[in-house]
Amino acid sequence: MPIQLFRFLVRLLPAALALRIVRALATRSQRSAATPEQQQALAGARRLQYGESGSNAAWAWGDSGPLVVFVHGWNGSAAQMAPLAAHVAALGFRSVAIDVTGHGASPGQRTDWACFINDVAALQQSLGEEVHAYVGHSAGAMTLMAARAARGVRAARYVSICAPSHPFPPIEVIRKRLNPPEAVLALYRGHIARQFGRSWEQLEAGAVWAGTGAGHLLFYDEGDRFVPHAVGDRVLGWCPGARLVKTQGYGHTRVLASPELAGAVGGFLLQPAPDSGE
């Protein structure tokens, strides 16, 4: 169905019905092809299964050392995180990168915020051991922060790469693609907020970020057009003692392959763990 028809319907239908169209479009996931570098890094990993049915996929590098879990962003995959995960494993850690439902080698054609939150918790339960650090990109970073309160996910350290302060990106995408009435956007914001177990106002105020303390590295790129780097300054204000690093010229996803990120993450993980405040 052409997008022009969707734009017409969301303005014609009652808000509750229009919300169904918005949700149908917003939750449809896309799988992009891995780059040669990502394919090479993923080829060095072994496949794990997680979740109640064991049908979801994760990938592991290294046989010993503290456990570091990598969480990709919306429409991303473990392959995107693979070069960084392999780099961290070479430093003496054991890396595991998740494919969230609807992404990568995990089943499904749709995803949602609750999928990220629940899948991170399910992976931790399947691994059955303490996680030293979580490294998340974009939506993956923000949802693993939310999973701490929602699902009891814990680690000594966290790395958040180009993370939104709250789940505003899909709101802006839907606004640009469909231009729905404000009443429909309000319902959509409420639908998203319920998946976090918070109100939209609480999410805007940084509720998911509280309590990470000095054990948190924030990483943003000044060329990111999807999550502006100024968001990092806002998040830093909610995470007293965290460290903020910014690069230039990579954008939202290419930053994952940057040497600056690899160096910052490796150095951060190798430092003695401070009191995270949790």
Helical content stands at 40-55%
What is the CATH class name? Answer: Alpha Beta
H-E string: HHHEEEHEHEHEHHHEHEH
> Can you list the strand order of the major beta sheet?
1-2-4-3-5-6-7-8
Query: Which class best fits the helix and strand makeup?
Result: alpha/beta
Structure description:
Helix 2 (15-26) crosses helix 8 (182-196). The model has no long low-confidence stretch (mean pLDDT 95). With 278 residues, this protein is α/β, with parallel strands linked by helices. Strand 1 and strand 2 form a beta hairpin. The chain has a single domain (41-177, 191-270), classed as Rossmann fold. The chain has eleven helices and eight strands. Strands 1-2-4-3-5-6-7-8 form an eight-stranded mixed sheet, with helices on both faces.
Keywords:
alpha/beta; Rossmann fold; eight-stranded mixed beta sheet; 8 strands
List the helices and strands and how they pair.
Blueprint: H1 3-12, H2 15-26, H3 36-43, E1 46-50, E2 56-61, E3 67-71, H4 78-90, E4 94-98, H5 113-127, E5 133-137, H6 139-151, E6 157-161, H7 169-178, H8 182-196, H9 200-204, E7 216-221, H10 230-238, E8 243-247, H11 259-270
Parallel strand pairs: 3-4, 3-5, 5-6, 6-7, 7-8
Antiparallel strand pairs: 1-2, 2-4
